[in-house]
From TrEMBL:
Gene: dapB
Organism in which the protein naturally occurs: Mucilaginibacter mallensis
Protein name: 4-hydroxy-tetrahydrodipicolinate reductase
One Pfam family per UniProt: DapB_C
Catalytic activity: (S)-2,3,4,5-tetrahydrodipicolinate + NADP(+) + H2O = (2S,4S)-4-hydroxy-2,3,4,5-tetrahydrodipicolinate + NADPH + H(+); (S)-2,3,4,5-tetrahydrodipicolinate + NAD(+) + H2O = (2S,4S)-4-hydroxy-2,3,4,5-tetrahydrodipicolinate + NADH + H(+)
Gene Ontology CC annotation, any one: cytosol
Length: 250
């Protein structure tokens, strides 16, 4: 498969290696210093594009892929508020996209179990729930896309929570937020050194604490998932989330 790589940062470089190991060919690599090469003509040389850039560039990159008529796998986070309008405008024209806040298999299992756990916890209202995420200090968005997906999974299934609120904790002081309402699910974001991504759902009561946690040891799981998604989407049409690809059942 011929791949166009949009974004050649921490993720783009690992995706390149995994794609080549899986016998794919990288026919176009775009980063901030050669954006003039991101043309419809160049994109048409690829069967699929994989996009890991920044929240401010992702939308225009997606539009370019749609214009070129190639499917695009999007890993960039921090842009999902634009998804409904993008879908309404472009899905009827046959444009193809697969997006995920997290491509790792472990996190997608976590997403699934998180929903089941939230449903179960309706029976035990004396537990207060919160989500914590820790990422490296270069991360541009907060909360992480993964933490938002986890929070949405809880809100859909746990009657006590209606929406989420985020605080970015400065670990050097003891920031406490007293603006979070009872019906809001708190997402606490921490930025520490080079942490690739840690997410924890915490149910706390007076007598005990239940913690459900995913720790990424490196970025390889995200990158492999993105290449698997490109293989999956290549001959499909329309708007897909990664749930369409994994389709877990127990
Ligand atoms: N979905 C997932 O599984 C997953 C996993 C890791 C990271 N991410 C997300 O992916 C994005 C990238 O992460 P990263 O760690 O590789 O970041 P990074 O900062 O290391 O890399 C981003 C790269 O994009 C380049 N870039 C900026 N504007 C561009 C443009 N218009 N066109 C092409 N390239 C451009 C930058 O120069 C940089 O090299 C972030 O939004 C992050 O949250 C998602
Ligand atoms: O390193 C990042 O940035 C990550 N972003 C995704 C998110 O926002 O959830 C996935 C984990 C790593």
């Amino acid at each position: 498969m011929k791949i166009a790589l949009l974004g050649y940062g921490k993720m783009g470089k690992i995706i390149e290696k995994i794609a080549i190991d899986r016998k794919h060919e990288i026919v176009l690599t775009i980063d901030h210093d050669n954006m003039h090469e991101l043309t419809v003509e160049n994109l048409k040389k690829a069967d699929v594009a994989i996009e890991f850039t920044t929240p401010s560039s992702v939308l225009s990159n997606i539009h370019k892929c749609f214009e070129a008529g190639i499917p695009v796998v999007v890993g960039t986070t921090g842009w999902y508020e634009h998804l409904p309008a993008l879908k309404a405008q472009h899905e009827p024209n046959g444009s193809t996209i697969l997006y995920a806040s997290n491509f790792s298999i472990g996190v997608n299992i976590f997403f699934h179990v998180n929903k089941i756990l939230a449903k179960l916890m309706n029976n035990y209202p004396y537990y207060e729930v919160q989500v914590e995420e820790i990422h490296h200090t270069q991360k541009l968005d907060s909360p992480s896309g993964t933490a938002i997906t986890i929070a949405e999974g809880i809100i859909e299934n746990l009657d006590a929570k209606r929406d989420w609120a985020n605080i970015l904790i400065n670990d050097n002081d003891n920031t406490v937020d007293d603006n979070v309402k009872n019906e809001q699910l708190l997402i606490e974001s921490h930025r520490i050194d080079s942490v690739p991504g840690t997410h924890t759902v915490i149910y706390d009561s007076e007598v005990d604490t239940l913690e459900f946690k995913h720790t990424a040891h490196n970025r390889n799981g995200f990158a492999l998932g993105a290449v698997l998604a490109a293989e999956w989407i290549k001959d499909k049409k329309g708007f897909h989330s990664i749930q369409d690809m994994f389709n877990f059942s127990v």
